[in-house]
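Show me a record, fold above all:
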Amino acid sequence: MNPLTQFKKILILPLLIALALVALASPASATLPPGNTVAQWNKIAEDTVVGSGAFQPEGFIYMAYASAAVYDAVVAIEGGFEPYGPPITAPPGASVDCATVEAAYRTLRYYFSAFPVLVANLDAYYAEALSNLGGCTADGGAGTGVGLAAATNIIALRTGDGRMTPIAVTSSFPTLPPGPGVWRLTPPFALPQTPWVGDVRRFVLQSVDQFLPDPPPSLQSNEWVGAFNEVKAYGALTGSSRTDEQTAIAKFWSANVIRQYNLVGRDLAGASPDLLETARLAAMVNLVGADALMSTMHAKYHYLFWRPVTVIDPTAVTIDGFGPVPGFDDGNPATVEQTGWLPLLTTPNHPEYPSNHGSVTSAMAEVFSTFLGTNQIDLDVHGFDPAGLPGNLDAVHHFDMPKDLRGEVIDARVWAGLHYRFSAVAGVVLGRQVAKYDLRHAFQPVR
């Protein structure tokens, strides 16, 4: 049965009851973010996901759920593009704004029902949105029905996709025998970050290893020696060869990528009333971003390659169940270890190869150039300003071409002491491959 038909007869009375309950249980009003309705609920989704404490690759999965539901709701009414999930037949006159609100709200409330504060915030935004839209009853509840159908479809489509709960939970993964090149936990020795993310069913890709990169270089190769020496010299917390500008660039890219790239999407949409294009871009950002990061996480736990901090200083490892203390050196006489070496930024608690930031940034460069229809992207990206508050996005870097964006993130991860150059390059290649595939197989105009 069409979900719209299923819910049509029971929409209005529960909607009015829900409004009354929300008014009692939540703040009297909430200030909706700026922009059109899709942009508003994209920002609400972003705040909800980040506020849950989800790690960034995990968080993109939740952003994709909400973005897919909104996209399908808008496409059902506006037409012009293929839906992501099952098609929905929208009645004539259905409100696209009401459909957007319902799709986003129902999807987010379902996935974050275990977070009372987040639910209260969502309820308050929902009440404010409905109030601004006259209760969404002028179209007889048709728009609300479309949004509810879209949310229901996505939740059903993604049930059993491999997502694990609670938020930020670790999981088991196949290990390798301890030895040179094998990943060890890094200071401050947090549990392995969300290995399960790499095996979640992709949103558009056909398999988890569809674009698995080639293995990292041999520890006896010239490429390894050059990468070791570069990150040792330029990525150190103290005594580094970095310039002040390079240090600022490294710290710029410590910003939350969910916030960075959804903000770029909203900036591109601007104050436009075009809900369809805003919804399409938000879906492209988040579904492609999720596929790219799931692909790198799969590769990371497939190769289990070691991070710079534990190879440059083998004494940096502790008793972690993954090998002896101290750790191994690389057995290459052309490299020289350094006791006490630490990276500029704290190493994330997952394996080295390839780079998550390289992957998602490269994928986003492809998304934005595809959406704009040109390589002259002329984009401002917001990132972390070390002079500001924790988590800020106050610094702005301008990029004229996708290659400029990709090149900077490669350098940044080396200068931060987090990745060897070959890992950042492999991430960039992987992210672009994922994005090209996804954008050819989804979000296409109706032919």
Notes: The chain is about 50% helix and 0% strand. The mean pLDDT is 93. The radius of gyration is 23 Å.
